Amino acid sequence: MQIPDYKDVLAAHERIRPWIHQTPVLTSSYFNERTGAELFFKCENFQKAGAFKARGATNAVFGLPQESLAAGVATHSSGNHALSLAYAAGARGIPCHVVMPHTAPQAKKDAVMGYGGQITECEASTSAREAAFAELQARTGADFVHPYNDPRVIAGQATCSRELVQQVSELDVVIAPIGGGGMISGCCLTLTAIAPETAIYAAEPQQADDAARSLKAGRLIADDAPQTIADGLKVPMKDLTWHFVREHVTDILTVDEQSIIDAMRLVWQRMKIVIEPSCAVPVAAILNNPNVFANKRVGIIITGGNVDLERLPWQ
Amino acid sequence: MQIPDYKDVLAAHERIRPWIHQTPVLTSSYFNERTGAELFFKCENFQKAGAFKARGATNAVFGLPQESLAAGVATHSSGNHALSLAYAAGARGIPCHVVMPHTAPQAKKDAVMGYGGQITECEASTSAREAAFAELQARTGADFVHPYNDPRVIAGQATCSRELVQQVSELDVVIAPIGGGGMISGCCLTLTAIAPETAIYAAEPQQADDAARSLKAGRLIADDAPQTIADGLKVPMKDLTWHFVREHVTDILTVDEQSIIDAMRLVWQRMKIVIEPSCAVPVAAILNNPNVFANKRVGIIITGGNVDLERLPWQ
Known about the structure:
Order of helices and strands of chain A: HEHEHEHEHEHEHEHEHHEHHHE
Structural class of chain A: alpha/beta
Mean pLDDT of chain A: 95
CATH architecture of the largest domain in chain A: 3-Layer(aba) Sandwich
CATH topology of the largest domain in chain A: Rossmann fold
Distance between the termini of chain A: 44 Å
Helix content of chain A: 40-55%
Oligomer: homodimer
Strand order of the largest sheet of chain A: 1-2-10-7-8-9
Strand content of chain A: 15-25%
Number of domains of chain A: 2
Low-confidence stretches of chain A: none
């Protein structure tokens, strides 16, 4: 297990800068009044390819050695990592192969193909996905860029919290959703290095709470194919992300499905931004746990904005 | 007819600054590639009360003399002006009475009441609205703040294009939707004073094209209660706004309903921002008329983001 360090984050930030946005930080007087906290929304829904995953993917793709370029890259992903890898591969002009569950939102499939990515569909379980991927990789010889359990990807995601710390001073807390744990691991990597006073919280759907149970049990628990509206958060942690979570995360708060939908709708309505269900999970966690966050300066990673506009959860 | 001038815009900007946001200007590589133009989206959907109308309303409310405060303000509005006047009156702590068509989106009614405004409902036609309002005003003695045909309101709206010109240099064109013409009049007021090289375009639904027909005919034509998805654009121009449009608008482009819906959906999907149908009208006009806008630097006023999330037009 190769654990990335903060020097890798600095190198990643230099490498990916031409290919990603420095996303804005938004505030909302409504949410501040409602929560009693000072909230800073780091808007990765405005990121290239619509999600923070462009950071890790471009870091992996633009760090590839010359001899790997012809075979290109490959991955399996519930959506945003696939988009982002296709975006990054398209930017470098190399092939990109993606295994996606057939249940992934059509908007994400269309976007992968729009960037020139090639999709192989599979069943929705983690095990089915990994089997389909093994076949693909054997056939193409492409470099596997794991959606989160990859030091290049984690170093790339870590540039997000680095920007946030540069944009907003003296944060008491940073909170992000947790699925596989790539973003949270990146937060751990950055914040322990340059903002060690900032507490790191994760938020997770109750219906896919393997990370919360892992933290409580002190050992890695991985569920296969849990069901939640937050489709980016169905995947389990792996050894590398579990390392960061176990070492540095203060707590993992879980929220029910209705709270996720309500929080998502409220952000759309009040802040006029399109966010995915996954990023509504930390917002719901803050709304449901005012005692944890009141009177604190809280950075929230808004992880992405790729939703099927035809299938909104409150309709 | 009292015609505001640029000194009124400067005074308005000073007066309203504590109560409004300087909204950001967003760009989109997708829309730039798609249109061949360089587009700058002035995001008044992020404005207080969710629309540019907060500018004109706060200018009127905070300019009121002491002796008018007890009776407060009153208006009739298809929605955003009502919200904005309620917001401004709430900020100054004075009463706000609003006549609204019963067909106005529930989200707008709720928001007016949330700011402390008092609603009187009426039928959806302009004539019915004006009759209900006359009764209300006689009863309360409140100061009438017209949604657009008011020099205080136009001077306030004009601060939006002033910000835009300060944020983005050398615009070839500014385009905004036209309903009653308050925003467009504000653009005329500002741009003729400080950016006289910038052409001013308006965009209008084909199904509510009285402004386009007026400009072509050279005389004011006012339809009563046209039907369009762009509910903010159903009202007709009046003498003051017609003065600015006739004098300074290069052209008024009209677009069909499906183009409005498609453009709205595309902005949500690609830019991850929530915009109303009204602000999709200029976006649709640019997509439908590439010959007019290609190779130009184009500022687009995104007028607001107040939509009923339960009733989206593509569902």
